[in-house]
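User: Structure tokens for both sequences below?

Assistant:
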Amino acid sequence: MMGSISLAQAQSMITDSIHWAQENNQHIAVAVVDSVGELISFSRMDETSPQTCLLAQNKAYTAARDRQKTSQLAAWAKETSKTINFWTDPRITGMAGGVPVKDKAGKVVGAIGISGMAEFDDEALAESILAQR
């Protein structure tokens, strides 16, 4: 990735995610955001619930804003006895499936959020999609 995620890159991540889901009989929603959590691109498959759509976007937003996987945020909150309300931002989520996108220097340039499967399956797919880049 370069200094930011282009629309073409975001759409490619989404296309690859949905292609995998179709091959594996899953129904997912995928969001890609920029480094501050603003939506670049979003897609949902047919028969995907409205809650899944919201979660995918919030997972991507959280991973970009907090600069770490959403599952890591949840683990930290549990270890420190904090609730997600600690961040005072209703879009922050600790559900796994949000993964930051980093450039070659390790700087967070955005994030991908996937929802629709078990949390850690969402995260594994997001990591797999990013590993291809």
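Moving on to the next sequence.
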Amino acid sequence: MSISPADSPLPASRSEEDGSAVIRVLSYNIRSLRDDTTALARVITACAPDLVLLQEAPRFFRWRKKLSRLAAASGQVVLSGGATASGPALLCSLRATVERTEDVLLPLTPGLHRRGFATAVVRFGAARVGVLSCHLSLQKDERRKQGDLLLDRLAALGAPHAVAGGDLNERPDGRTFTRLAAELQDGWAVAPWGGEYTSTPGDPHQRIDALFATPGVQVLGCGVPLGHPGVSEADLRAATDHLPVLAALRVPAA
């Protein structure tokens, strides 16, 4: 994998005079922490996110302790998810004020893996935002139904603005990806920054991970943090079997 540096630095987190907040959101499939967790923590730390949307978080023996250790090593705290959401999880920085969290298990299709959503509503000063992490099915019909449930759940959070992201197991021309992009802003399509492809670290050739935002949110930049300060090619290869997606968003005051 060759690193193609981002054209310009991604905006840093900050609060604006009008009450809006610039936040960084990171989505990352961490493959149940089966790879180099030290490299993974370095990547997350270097991205300096306010919210981290994880997929394939630990779900079995001592999963809470493993997730807490990753959060502590990367300057975050555990917000929700893990085994209770069947894989998706949320971390956040101390900048976030948490209103509520909810882990959601989706209908189980016999013979397929159980899926779920990790959700929360958080505030950054006067800016209030709903957040959802997902890992959609490998089976296209089940994945389509889960995409509809994602949109319903995002609306049910009751927040004026929201961000959703995760491993969609589908490329942008797929039916579910297209459906989500029709209702929400696809971060990479709106404000491409860094790299596009998220799979695989050794041979990036497809975009199956994404971050979406509701229409009122301004996407300042979104993509794989290739060339981002502190993010090395070696760490991206060693951390897990996906590349992360990092976005800077301006969320209006509620």
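User: Anything stand out in the second?

Assistant: The first strand starts at residue 14 and ends at 15.
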